[in-house]
Design brief:
The chain has helices at residues 2-14, 21-28, 148-155, 158-162, 317-325, 344-357; strands spanning 33-36, 38-40, 47-49, 54-61, 69-75, 90-96, 98-104, 110-116, 120-122, 128-133, 140-146, 183-185, 193-196, 198-199, 208-209, 218-224, 229-236, 244-245, 252-257, 260-265, 273-277, 281-283, 290-295, 301-308, 336-337. It is of the alpha+beta class. The strands form 5 sheets. Strands 2, 12, 13, 15, 16, 17, 19, 22 and 24 form a 9-stranded mixed β-sheet that branches. A hairpin with a 7-residue loop joins strand 20 and strand 21 (273-277). It is built from 6 helices and 25 strands.
């Protein structure tokens, strides 16, 4: 009897305790994992990744919460990945190089589209796909921002995640969604959506003015592959910056054009955390940490934000509140700090950045700049 009890105790002791199946999987990949507040993905170290049969690395942002991870795939000249399918959603952004992706649909038909630096695309959930480097001389580097941590931690079964044969036919989209076309869904400023699976070049994609977010900025929300992953693109004109705001963890912000910086702070905190960014830099503001984005370049700057839960499928009540209140004054129950209520140091830091960039501030119509040292 005692021997049986000891065997039972041994079995119980071997069971997982406070397990994180995603992190266990990530560590088992034997590729570089970088964790930081902000990470410059073009410089992320990579090594051979058997899972995709290319080089790869993982970027874990401090503010990713329980939801998202970033895979970086680097295809050698003329190389390709192995065909894959999986039960998590992802949004790809092309950091460098040129190539193509082939997607196999539920009826066996295939769509191929060509991408280059600045392209964004999403793979329909669990569809089989494969990436190809179109250059015989240069590597191609892509980032995949995905909700694999959420899915792996819910199901903790790798066969279910990577070997599932179910077809989500309703998510495949129309044929023209793989050619760079899409459907514009007008809502109101800051809520307009573009539905597609592929955007050939975010750097030149047409955006719409969103005055409430500040200083002549423009925006477009995306619905990609009918998924629950959120993506939006914002542009800040020369000499401007966005209003401060806050939301829950998981929004991954990546620079697409120009360069600049973001300031982050918790309510009541004296000092700012600063992240300087240029093309391919990504950071994720931690849960309910205020943050503010500044264009420090002599040209317009664009950034792409990706999160779990979007305008079509918010997934969580917290996301629904954020999307409803992201351009509403925090003093009125929203998430935004108006210019007149921001810390005066914010504008002084910006004026110094403008001087360094050799560009003039265009914030005078919103802020009395006579009070500041220029």
């Amino acid at each position: 009897m005692e021997a049986v009890a000891e065997e039972v105790r041994s079995q119980v002791d071997d069971r997982p305790f406070l397990s994180d199946p995603y992190l266990d999987w990530a560590e088992a990949q034997n590729i570089p994992i970088v964790e930081d507040f902000g990470i410059h993905l073009p410089d992320l170290p990579v090594s051979p990744w058997e899972h995709f049969e290319c080089n790869g690395g993982l970027a874990h942002l401090k503010g990713r919460g329980d939801w998202l991870s970033v895979f970086v795939l680097e295809l050698p000249p003329g190389g390709n990945t192995r065909p894959r399918n999986h039960m998590f959603e992802e949004v790809y952004y092309v950091l460098s190089g040129t190539g193509s992706t082939q997607v196999e649909l539920s009826d066996g038909s295939k769509h191929s589209f060509e991408w280059g630096q600045g392209s964004m695309f999403a793979i329909p959930l669990n569809a089989k796909y494969q990436h190809f480097n179109g250059s015989g001389q240069e590597p191609a580097r892509l980032s995949s921002t995905n909700n694999s941590p959420m899915i792996m931690n819910v199901y903790h079964d790798h066969e279910f995640v990577f070997a599932n044969t179910f077809h989500f036919k309703g998510r495949e989209g129309s044929d023209n969604y793989y050619t760079g076309d899409g459907t514009f869904l007008p809502k109101r400023p800051g809520r307009h959506m573009w539905e597609t699976n592929f955007v050939p070049d975010l750097r030149s994609f047409e955006l719409h003015t969103w005055a409430a977010r500040g200083a002549g900025g423009s925006n477009m929300m995306f619905c990609l592959a009918d998924g629950a992953m959120h993506a939006h693109m914002s542009e800040m004109p020369v000499g401007t910056y966005k209003k401060g705001h806050r939301h829950g963890a998981d929004f991954h912000v990546m620079c697409v054009t120009g360069y600049g910086y973001s300031l982050l702070w918790y309510q009541g905190q004296e000092d700012f955390t600063r992240v300087d960014w240029s093309h391919g830099t990504v950071f994720a503001p931690p849960d309910m940490m205020f943050h503010q984005h500044f264009n420090a370049a002599p040209d317009p700057s664009r950034y792409l934000a990706i999160a779990c839960g979007g305008l079509r499928y918010p997934l969580m009540e917290e996301k629904r509140r954020i999307f409803l209140g992201m351009d509403v004054d925090v003093n009125k129950g929203g998430a935004q700090i108006e210019y007149e209520n921001q810390d005066p140091r914010v504008h002084q830091i910006f004026l110094e950045a403008m001087k360094k960039a050799g560009a003039g501030s265009k914030m005078g119509q919103f802020i009395d700049e006579s009070k500041f040292d220029v």
